[in-house]
Amino acid sequence: MISLPFGLFRRRRLTTAQQDTLLNNLEALLNQIDAALDQFGPDVEATDRNALVGCRASLRELFLIVVAGEFNSGKSTFLNALLGAQVLPEGVTPTTDAITLLKYGDEPFDELIEPGLRLHHYPAEMLRQLTVVDTPGTNAVIRQHERLTRDFIPRADLVIFLTSADRPFTESERTFLELIKDWGKKVVVVINKIDILTPAEQEQVAQFVREHVNRVLEQSPELFLVSARRALQARQQPDHELEQWQASGMAAFEHFVVDTLDEETRFRLKILSPLGVARRITEKYLAATESRLATLRDDVYALEQIERQLTLFHDELKQDAEYHLGEIDRVLTTMQERGEQFCDDTIRLSRIRDLVDGNRLRTAFEQEVIGDIYQQIDQRIQKLIDWLVEKNLRLQQNIDEFIQQRALAYRDQMLGQVGGSFAYNRQALLEHIGQAAQTAIARYNRETEAQQLAGEIQSSVAATAITGVGAVGLGATLVALFHTVLLDITGILAALTVAGLGLAILPAKRRQAKESLRKKIDEVRTRLHAELRQQIERQSEQTLHQIRERNAPFMRFVRAQQEHLIGLQRTFSDLMVAIEKFSKQVE
Asked: Is residue 508 a part of any domain in this protein?
């Protein structure tokens, strides 16, 4: 907001060359801001673009005074009084349906430049030095009127804010003054229709308006009390009725416009006005850029959290798998203990008939050693597989829920503000991740996944087994390996055919059979552990890869946007420094 009193502008006069230099530098600065908005992207609001275009276009035009206020506050009458003629229509209903530019012309002439913008030429001496703009009411029933007023304020070099003595400083006027403050405009306040008040009431109204205006603008603007109706009547009298003109308050205001707003003051205000617009726009998009960066920083943190979850999942999976492998080990240990006991009980002279009868030996081995080992191994491995499938599914569900929460976290804040395509693209990517995760989860059939994993393990183990794949179930496939131990046991038959050697070799054959069984179980244990760990690792990597693949487009978006926005933040920050430096130079 421009806060310097007008008198300070008279300390040092600027030469024509200095003025040209300032105008050229300001134009270059506005061009830099325009280029920065191009970098910001398609989300720049049209109002801001138009304001910047308007400022550049009006740099070398006449000083622009905009008269604003509620409809029926007497703006048209006020301007007619100032110009000394019935130039603009007046009435108790909204009479100004367009922004009207009042410019000097040798003859009165009116033309519509574009929808909502009218140009009126009039031979008033005041208009040789400045352009006056009449605007529709800020609280007009026809909302298009108010929009035109709001869109034109950024172009103003000075705003004359007119309020009526019969309803001073309404809520809509307070709102409109805040808008003017945002654009950094110099404001002069005029209280019209003071002829309906006593002097005491005039002072009371003036104090009321001054306090509220100061609170909104955070400064004390120039304030004038006038009766535009009496001033116009005085102007229309042949002798001008000087006393009535003075009493109307318009003489003081006319002096302000003609004498106080001299050429030097008008030039400096004309320079500071675009700087106010530049400051507002730069601050706005610097804040929007920093808001986006903050969102992306949170997104990066969220993605890092996901990656930590994935790493933790991978580590925990390997640790927890050891419990299930230990359960399988216990089954194998039980089998080994049974086998050793079987050897101790069977390979002895009292069981010579069983040893000679291979079928009986095989049957006894299967009953006493193998027994329900098939089922136990299958149950333990199936339990491991079910656990692994459940862990993978739970991880995907947790990540999906995390992403969905992230998608909602900034939805209300980003959408509807200067979020635009950034917010839309970010939201779309997050929702795509969520939808892809939901699809993957919906297709994740636990039973099918478990069967497929079990088949892969069985095939891999059997492929390395010396017996091949002939049994049903992984447990049966593994147990088939132990039947080779019987070859060692039945080898006793050949030894016993040598008379006199049976008693000598029987203990050795028992030790040999037990050692063969122990070796075979260790071999199976090692092979099974290796294969199960490999399958667990493969399953884990597959799940992590799928999740990372789903997150990849969003991660690329975050990184690209971050790099772009960091550069844009630096650009807007440098522009803010340039604006403040330029303002001090002018002031």
From this structure: yes
Same domain, 345 and 458: yes
Query: Which residue among 269, 299, 320 closes a domain?
Result: 269
CATH of the domain at 71: 3.40.50.300
pLDDT (0 to 100) of residue 579: 94
HSE-CB of 268 using CA atoms within 13 angstroms: 24
Whether 351 and 254 map to the same domain: the answer is no
Identify whether residues 256 and 327 lie together within a single domain.
Answer: no
Question: What residues have CB less than 8 Å from 297, skipping those under 6 apart?
Answer: none
Q: pLDDT (tens digit, 9 = 90+) per residue, 222-241?
A: 899 999 888 888 887 766 56
Distance CA 331, CA 317 (A): 22
Q: Are 565 and 293 in contact (CB under 8 A)?
A: yes
pLDDT > 60? residue 472: no
Q: How far is CA 408 from the centre of its chain?
A: 10
- Structural domains in the chain (count): 2
Strand order across the beta sheet in which 117-122 lies: 109-114, 117-122, 99-104, 130-134, 63-69, 158-164, 187-192, 222-225
Least confident of 50-54, 145-149, 157-161, 187-191: 145-149
94 lies in the same domain as 147: yes
Quickly list H helices, 370-419. 373-409, 411-414
Q: Is the pLDDT of residue 289 over 80?
A: yes
- Other residues' Cβ atoms within 10 Å of the Cβ of residue 287: 12
Stated pTM of the model: 0.70
Q: Which amino acid is at 144?
A: Q
